[in-house]
Design a protein that fits this description.
The complex is a heterodimer of chains A (about 450) and B (about 130). Chain A is about 80% helix and about 0% strand. Chain A is mainly alpha-helical. In chain A, strands 1-2 form a two-stranded antiparallel ribbon. Chain A starts with a helix and ends with a helix. In chain B, helix 1 packs antiparallel against helix 2 and helix 2 packs antiparallel against helix 3. The N and C termini of chain B lie far apart (about 80 Å). Classes of the chains: A mainly alpha (about 450), B mainly alpha (about 130).
């Protein structure tokens, strides 16, 4: 209970304070890092409670259940929350060591962390929207970070497209309230089963579009390359390693738990869209020469795997989707941070990230791909597609490695030692997760268990 | 009543979408604002009842639903805040690009990309020459 309240309260309150002070001074930046570390520590405690004793539920303000907003931490929410916080912490530490150029950067990063934590740990649909909007608004401003013309133009595109996405989400929220008469996710899941199929399919499509825009899936990806290449590396790492998790989490939570009937109906379509995303992202990434552009298109391809796994469904499919989302987020954080860095560790870190994207042991990506192959084992066409996607990713990551590290582009004064240490610890994490995957597998299976009924939210609701 | 509200929301969304696709950045912002109004209207319409005000002590029967109104209020505030943020962003873009037309922005970007490609090609040529 306390850990759940604190994990929201710490970044929220401190974010408001940090926005008001000048973030360009080093102590302020380090304070933001400390706040993020503190929230991470609280959430690790929360995760330990959730994994041993089951979901933690709390109604805010001691209102009777059904009136007050419920906060709810289950394995799926806690896992995504921890993951996003880790990505944000790494990118922030990286940027603070380099020096912050913008007075609001540390505050906004902490507010973004608060918003994401809220999104993953709420049990109330409208509350989900509010936290969603909180984290998106922080991200809109973060996208302008650096203030170059390119970043500004990209941020404008990012804001417009994603605002449209959030309003589509809001329309679906209104639909859910109209159909079920409640905003509590546990009750929605129970009542949605009796809803009129026409209405519920419309609602499901709205949610799918909203989350696909966040995730940057193939037909909704058009904003993504501009933004990820226009933004600074640390911001790109935060957006793709932290913020994009909303999309994967939303598809899992809303598809797997609130609208399982509609997910079954659309399974074929999801697999087709995911496959299109994998091929499109892979082919375009091969045609790029700079690290940033390659990573942007690779991000489109990699989320396709998550969608394919969700389309396959069942305990195996959801488990693979969660695991792949986790691994992808770690990869993207690591690889985006290597852009514009120089030094001995950078090349090694890039190679570990590249191995992980291509799914080659000993990096963590191998475990993700393995689970995906196991989930797709019954469908030969999918196996061919997954193999093709992996081959493409092997091609594009090492092509960029060759361009970036073997040509003269990366020579010069090496980056700060501390910055390289941040990168090295992230690379080490990817490596350790690949060498000793049992904890990660157990976590993702526990998270998938939430969706397949091992412990549903409906059970957790009194 | 539901039909009237639904068509009003649909028209608002359509008008917003049309504005969003314009080249003028100011119209894009207006489009986002109009779409946010469509969402607010839908929220209100999702639980529309004609009843007494839900103020304590609660009326015994025929009470209108306070939740959808609370949601609408929140959505109005958030929509207003995002529209103003977007407006500020447009202002910064206008000062940076000296234009509020999307085409001219795209032109400036394309010019930059072409220059980079040219530099890249030159680098490559130089490298090839050095290798020979």
């Amino acid at each position: 209970m306390t850990a759940l309240a604190l994990s929201l309260l710490i970044p929220w309150a401190m974010g408001v304070v940090l926005v008001m002070v000048d973030g360009r001074r080093a102590p302020v930046g380090w304070l933001a890092v400390v706040v993020l570390v503190a929230s991470l520590a609280v959430q690790v405690l929360l995760a330990a409670t959730v994994l041993s004793d089951g979901p933690v539920v709390m109604t805010t303000g001691d209102w009777p259940t059904g009136v007050g907003i419920t906060l709810r931490a289950d394995a799926l929410g806690v896992l995504f929350s921890l993951l996003s916080l880790l990505a944000i912490l790494t990118a922030t530490a990286h940027q603070v060591i380099e020096g912050v150029h913008d007075r609001v950067f540390p505050g906004l990063v902490v507010i973004l962390a608060a918003g994401l934590t809220g999104v993953f740990l709420t049990g109330d649909l409208f509350n989900f929207y509010v936290f969603f909007e909180l984290s998106m608004t922080a991200a809109y401003v973060l996208a302008t970070y650096g203030g170059s013309r390119r970043a500004l133009g990209a941020a404008l595109v990012f804001t417009t497209v994603n605002l449209l996405g959030t309003f589509v989400f809001l329309l679906s929220v209104a639909g859910v309230y109209h159909v079920t008469g409640t905003l509590d996710m546990g009750r929605i899941a129970a009542r949605m089963a009796d809803a009129d199929p026409n209405a519920s399919i419309l609602i499901a499509v709205g949610f799918f579009v909203a989350f696909s825009v966040k995730l940057g899936l193939f037909p909704f990806h058009f904003w993504l390359p501009t933004v990820y290449t226009g933004a600074r590396p640390a911001v790109a790492a935060i957006l793709s390693g932290g913020l994009a998790n909303i999309g994967a989490y939303g598809l899992l939570r809303f598809g797997g738990e609130l609208l399982p009937r509609e997910l079954d109906l659309a399974a074929g379509a999801l697999i087709v869209i995911g496959s299109a995303s994998i091929l499109y992202g892979g082919v375009l990434a091969v045609s790029r020469r700079t690290g940033g552009e390659m990573l942007a298109y690779s991000a489109i391809g990699q989320v396709g795997y998550v969608l394919v796994a969700i389309g396959i469904g069942g305990p195996m499919g959801f488990g693979a989707a969660v695991l792949y989302a986790v691994v992808n987020s770690l990869n993207k954080t690591l690889l985006f941070l290597t852009i514009r860095m120089r030094g001995a560790v950078v090349g090694a870190a890039f190679v570990i990230g590249a191995l992980s994207v291509a799914g080659i042991p000993p990096a963590a990506g191998f475990v993700g791909k393995l689970e995906l192959f196991r989930a797709a084992a019954d469908i030969p066409a999918l196996l061919v597609l997954l193999f093709l996607g992996s081959a493409l990713s092997l091609l594009y990551v090492f092509q960029v490695y060759q361009y970036d590290f073997w040509r003269t582009a990366r020579t010069g004064r090496p980056s700060a030692r501390a910055q390289q240490a941040v990168l090295a610890s992230m690379a080490l994490l990817v490596l350790v997760a690949g060498l000793w995957p049992e904890p990660l597998l157990a976590l993702s299976n526990a998270a998938a268990g939430v969706l397949t009924g091992a412990t549903t939210m409906a059970d957790a609701t009194p | 009543m539901i039909l009237v509200l639904a068509s009003a929301a649909a028209v608002l969304f359509g008008v917003g979408a049309y504005l969003l696709l314009q080249r003028d950045l100011l119209r894009v912002v207006l489009g986002v604002a109009v779409i946010s109004q469509a969402a607010t209207l839908t929220l209100m319409a999702s639980a529309l009842q004609f009843g007494d005000a839900p103020i304590l002590p609660l009326p015994a029967q025929n009470m209108s639903d306070p939740l959808s109104q609370a949601m609408s209020l929140t959505a109005i505030v958030i929509g207003f805040a995002s529209a103003s943020l977007l407006l500020v962003m447009v202002l910064r873009v206008v000062t940076a690009f000296h234009s509020q037309e999307l085409d001219e922005m795209a032109g400036a970007e394309a010019g930059r990309d072409a220059r980079l490609d040219l530099e890249d090609a030159e680098d490559h040529e130089a490298e090839e020459a050095a290798a020979r």
